[in-house]
Please model this.
Amino acid sequence: MSKDTIQSDWLQAFRAVASTLSISAASKELGLDKSQVSKRIALLEHKLGATLFARSTRKVALTPAGLGYLDHAQRALCELNAGEELLRSLRTDLSGRIRLTAPVSWGQKVLANCLPDFLRQHPGIEIELILSDQKMDLAREHIDLALRWTAKPSEGLSSIPIAPIQWHLAASYAYLSTHGTPKAPVDLTTHQCFCYWRENADDRWEFEDRANGQRHSVQAHGRYHVNNPEAVFAAASQGLGIALLPDYLCEQAFEQQSLIRLLPGFLPMTRFGSHMHAQAPTERAILPRNRALLVYLQTTLALPSRETPHNPP
Model:
């Protein structure tokens, strides 16, 4: 290889130090001596004619030049990995690790039930599933695919809808027998309301009239704000108030009539959107193993939720 060519192992060393801000940690991650990591960084800096890290006896920090170059280095490594995987896929069965993140509740209730079958179909693939409701930096965390509730997919990422999500208003018989049953969205202003709460904007509920498309906006009030949908479900089941819930949590409760579906003629319009999306940097989305998982999830989770209204007696 020409001395004028930036080598991939230089970029790997740069990315490892940039992500850990430690030569020692990077050397452990790469399985190299610290001197080897330092030499590769020095070669890269010499080739670029720029200082990528500010070093002291105690810490390492990215310089403005290093911070600006990091995204380019990550993309270059992803492209190289994608090319290698494409060539391997032409010769062998699918293999490799898929690093995947998904919301905690949906991941436990839905995703975790279908991934084992995918792994049985592809013995050469390994999945690392990270359940988190926090938005992660996909490049920095080396995430292949992020499954996210969103009505506005992130710019710069490939975004594919993989599973429909419907939202419903629900309450228990005990609550409704004491406080009455709302007949229209405006009635919610006199009730205790709570939802999967992430931002102050989640206290304003939007609905679309299924009959004429008219929009309704109401300010929901309640004494309970939680950032986990299962906690919302538990509160509704115990009669604390009216909840805005995703279908995968409440449909069985509707069938068992432990919860009652409210305002079936009005469609809740949440900032979480109507689908779970798979988002990824384009160079990761095209990897054969990642494409295989996307197709599998779309096929397995394609059936929409049932629309049968459940009205209180």
Summary: The CA atoms of residues 144 and 284 lie 6 Å apart. The first helix runs from residue 8 to 20. Residues 303-313 have pLDDT under 50 and may be disordered. The chain is about 40% helix and 20% strand.
